[in-house]
Design goal:
five-stranded mixed β-sheet, alpha/beta, globular, 392 residues
Length: 392
């Protein structure tokens, strides 16, 4: 006979095991969502409302959860959150020229954040040492040490080989290629570190906190110096067999086009990477431009800037149409610094999607600008840490 409340075979004298299992399920549900009402906990765990109420009372007494005062009438309508006592998760984000470290609690609140600029081409070992320094500074601000950290998520703008854990190529961080990033970071920090690429972390962040909330099938395209996609399918991050799913930046759009850093010609990245967009405009609009400058000039009516951003959207739309035909996501989120262009880029992108995608693949598709901006990757690293800290 199986117990209805935990799905495990009943055993004589297992009341304490049943209680432990039920607490485990409540904690896991809260850790996944940040905060839930008691009614939501009951729905997500399958536990009876009375059982959830008892679990919450016991966990509150133990200092493991808190039920803040709120406007909702009745205990079951008030949010339940895990406390700092349950530990911390850390996110580490390596960009082309920056490093950001963030610390969050199990209620998904970011408590501290540190950022520094990095030299282009820095070595992996140098970056990990700097990450440790920033982590200690953030923890010092919170009055705690590394022993409070349950797990660390780390993001790199590079593909990762699932079989070996090594950073693959092509990468805009050449000093990391061939390195087992998780191993060296774990060794240096003395904490388990889980690593993923920046596009995967972007989709995790937008799915947890941003424009992808409430979806089960989400595609996120990051448009910056590198171009990549992150995929959440059926509610789970999808990495593919070798860990390189989502490398949309290396979809070939022009087989006779510019040689890409991956060795192929005419990849999407050679047409829409932020440095390519800027290079198209600098001869006529002056050097030292940023994407923010280009967007501002386009919004002021500069025809060249409007044209370049529109062409960028069209190129992305061609690749995105293929992605939608294959995966049929319910929402497509555009992030990275080029997302600053908003409808200047998304308008042409939507037009091309409608032209090249199978109608049924995009009929109900929502295309949105990412909500988290430049923080998407570090928040995604935090989300990876939070997921990694989930009880088994």
């Amino acid at each position: 006979m199986r117990d209805k409340e935990n799905g495990d075979p009943g055993r004589p004298g297992s009341q304490s095991s049943l209680k432990s299992a039920n607490q485990h399920r409540v904690v896991r549900a809260l850790q996944m969502s940040g905060e839930l009402t008691q009614a939501e906990i009951a729905r997500r765990t399958g536990l009876a409302p009375a059982t959830v109420s008892n679990m919450v009372k016991e966990l509150t007494a133990a200092g493991m959860v808190t039920v803040p005062d709120g406007d909702h009438p009745g205990q079951r309508g008030r949010a339940v959150r895990l406390t700092r006592k349950m530990g911390l998760a850390v996110g580490i984000d390596f960009g082309h020229r920056h490093l950001t470290v963030a610390v969050a609690d199990m209620a998904h609140d970011v408590l501290a954040e540190e950022r520094v600029e990095l030299a282009a081409g820095h070595r992996a070992e140098e970056g990990v040492v700097q990450a440790g320094t920033l982590l200690d500074a953030a923890l010092d601000r919170l009055g705690c040490g590394r022993t409070s950290v349950l797990a660390v998520g780390m993001g790199l703008p590079a593909p990762l080989e699932t079989d070996t854990g090594e950073v693959g190529g092509p990468s805009i961080l050449p000093g990391w290629v061939g390195v087992d990033a998780a191993a060296i970071a774990s060794d240096h920090l003395g904490i388990a570190v889980h690593v993923d690429n920046d596009a995967n972390l972007g989709v995790l962040a937008e799915h947890m906190w941003g424009a992808g909330r409430g979806t089960t099938d989400l595609a996120y395209i990051k448009l910056s110096d590198g171009v990549g996609a992150g995929l959440v399918l059926d509610g789970r991050l999808y990495r593919g067999r070798g860990g390189t799913a989502g490398e949309i930046g290396h979809v070939t759009l022009d087989e006779f086009g510019q040689v890409c850093r991956c060795g192929n010609r005419g990849c999407l990245e050679t047409l829409v990477a932020s440095h390519v967009v800027i290079a198209l405009l600098e001869p006529s609009r002056g050097t030292g431009l940023s994407i923010a400058d280009v967007v501002a000039m386009a919004e002021d009516g500069d025809a060249a800037c409007v044209r370049v951003l529109a062409d960028t959207g069209r190129h992305v739309g061609v690749a995105a149409a293929s992605l939608c035909n294959l995966l049929n996501p319910e929402r497509l989120v555009i992030g990275g610094e080029l997302a600053l262009a908003g409808d200047l880029l998304l308008g042409p992108l939507r037009e091309v999607l409608a032209r090249y995608a199978v109608p049924s693949a995009v009929r109900s598709l929502e295309v949105r600008v990412a909500e988290l901006g430049s923080r998407a990757q570090v928040l995604g690293a935090v989300a990876l840490g939070l997921r990694s800290a989930l009880p088994a």
